[in-house]
Amino acid sequence: MSRYELHVVSNGRLTWKELTAIAVNIHPHVTAIHIREKEKSVDEIIEGLQFLLEAGVPAKNLYLNGYPSIAADMQLGGVQMPGHMPPLPTIPGGGSRKRIGVSVHSAEEAKQREREGADYVLYGHIFRRYPSWIRLPEG
After folding, report:
1. Helix (H, G, I), strand (E, B), or coil: what is residue 123?
2. Strand order, beta sheet including 78-81
3. Burial grade of 46 (CB within 10 A; 0-12, 13-18, 19 or more)
4. Tens-level pLDDT at each residue, the chain (139 residues)
5. In the chain, where does DSSP find H-type helix?
6. Whole-model pTM?
């Protein structure tokens, strides 16, 4: 794996058809396409992942946010966990040795997650939260 990586994160606003059209074109050029769909049900997420796979997006390029067992079952490239999750060795599905990333909000938290075995960390929140004057995107 290169020292530098490019991770693309879905924003929860696109249809699966729109997201797939983008993913089909960018997957050869990025490390990972994160499926971060907080407002969708588990069934909708699985259906969307199947749509992406059937369109030719390789499973190794798809990383699922927050569902390690689904990522393992579908043989995806990795899983992205939120920072408030327990230490990595206790995450179900973590033994599949797919890549595991964790969202962090400080340098110390990043170091701790590295000690736990995280393959990578993503810093900050990357989407605007409302009201925006409270906290702007940092990542």
Report:
1. strand
2. 7-9, 32-35, 62-65, 78-81, 99-104, 120-123
3. middle
4. 568 999 999 999 999 999 999 999 999 999 999 999 999 999 999 999 999 999 999 999 999 999 999 999 999 999 999 888 888 766 665 555 689 999 998 889 999 999 999 999 998 765 555 555 555 555 5
5. 16-26, 42-54, 68-73, 107-116
6. 0.83
Q: Is-contact 36 9, C-beta < 8 A? A: yes
Contacts of residue 36, defined as CB under 8 A and 6 or more positions apart, other chains included, come to: 9, 10, 11, 12, 65, 80
Residue 80's DSSP bridge partners are 65, 101
Do 63 and 71 form a contact (C-beta atoms < 8 A)?
A: yes
Which member of 7, 34, 84, 125 is catalytic? Answer: 125
And the tokens for 80?
């992205």
Catalytic site residue 84? no
Q: Which CATH superfamily is domain 7-123 in?
A: Aldolase class I (3.20.20.70)
pLDDT value at residue 139: 52
Sorted by sequence, the CB contacts under 8 Å of residue 73 that are 6+ apart come out as 93
